[in-house]
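Quick start: what a row looks like.
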Amino acid sequence: MAMNKIIHKFFPIFIFLVAIVYRAYGLLNQYPFWVDEFSSAHQALLLAKYGFSAFTNPMMGIDLHNTLTHVLIALSFGLFGAHEWTARLPFVLIGSLVPVGVFFLTRYLFNLPVAISATLLTTTSYMMITWSRQARGYALQQLLAIIAIYLYLRLLKKSSSGVVFAFFAVAVLGVLTHFMFFILLGSFFIHYFLFRRKDFIVNILKNKLSYILLVLFGVILYKFGFVNVIKVVIIENLFKTNNLWYYHSFLWREYGLITFLGVVGLLLAYRKYKEPVSLFLLYIGTHLLFLTFLWPPYTSRYLLPIFPLLFIGVGFSLSVLAANFSKRFSLIITVVLALGIIVGGDKFVTKPKQFYSVNHDFREIALIDYGQVYDIIKTKGNLKENQTAVIDTWHDRLYWYLGVDYPNAYIFRWINEPGLVNGLPKLTNYELNSEGEKIIPHTKNLRFIGELKDLQLAMKKYSKGFIFIDDASLPKDVIEYAEKNFKKELYLDHYPLDDNPYSIWPATLYSWGIE
């Protein structure tokens, strides 16, 4: 008993410190951003420079979808300056709290062997560590989901105003972090209806406050663009999306042991812990159905919210197996089995690494040293003379290296071409200015290259320029013209520290008028 009290008191602190070491090691090396990190950093720079007035300025191009993530990065920039490591720092700290959250949630529901083994797996998971080191809100989404589940289960046992307020606050923070948090909230709603049907009728259908909250969430949905997401992406692709092949490949081929033991563990736990485990299974199933059949873009990081629950299921499987060997030493045996999984493959980390690749499991994210590209642009471009056009396929990347107010910025994308890119149409909305240039709406004069005549118009306007091309599916006439007529400044196709040998991303920097 005394040993259990010591573990309960000191193990979470120990795990938090270990998690920080794994996640913060090498952070100051300033590894280059990848695509979505550039977006986060650009949004944070706008917030850091213009404050909350950026939200009401239609020309700022503020993305409301990941608001809390951008606010946290902006705060970090304000404290420590705008760097790659300061953009990632908040999520290193938050990601280090995720294993602690797993421990407390699992201990609240089950027993110590399950809690410790699930926590160890969460702490050392390569995937969990990797996504705690990115300037994106996935670790925050995980932590808020764990807290929300805990508070919801507390409410099922005994409702109190403090817990209700905390649950509502976490729900709002979750919505401000990522729209997929609504999947969890929907799972709560369905679960409550299934298991507390009488309470559902009394507390939901006959409670005026429920309708007020529904209206409030409707307003949040509308204000943060989720209605448009549902309309354009989900409804228009209903019965057209099928990502089963992709997520099956990831969960079964890459994480087959974790998926198998996780699901088996939750099924074994269902008989004794029917109410909480049914929530886990409902949420996992709903999340997977949404990603597979309703959400066209497919990428493994969308699975991150369910991984802590799978690790809890693994912990339960191991504890059952250990108890069959010896109930007296079940804690020790469970921990040994968990450590055996950790040291047995490349899905877990036994010692901290300087760099964790986002392509470790699947080749999904373009990753090269973009700093090399922009070093050439800044060195050769005479940017201060305001005579050099810079064309990039991702404007957030351009603004990160050249500043949020760089005046001669262009984005190179598709106008409207057949086919999809990662499940999304090749479509760019634009307007025409008085000079006949294509302009991206709601931006500070960000111009758009969608066809050869746009490039030629930019060349007439600027005697010098650069175009960075890192996607062969972009408009062919522009790519072919650049290949035949421009100077090749730099070619890159991989990041040296990326441990996936198939992670090849051809990218070329071209220039005109540069000596």
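That is the whole record. Residues 55 and 208 are 31 Å apart (CA to CA). The two ends are 76 Å apart (CA to CA).
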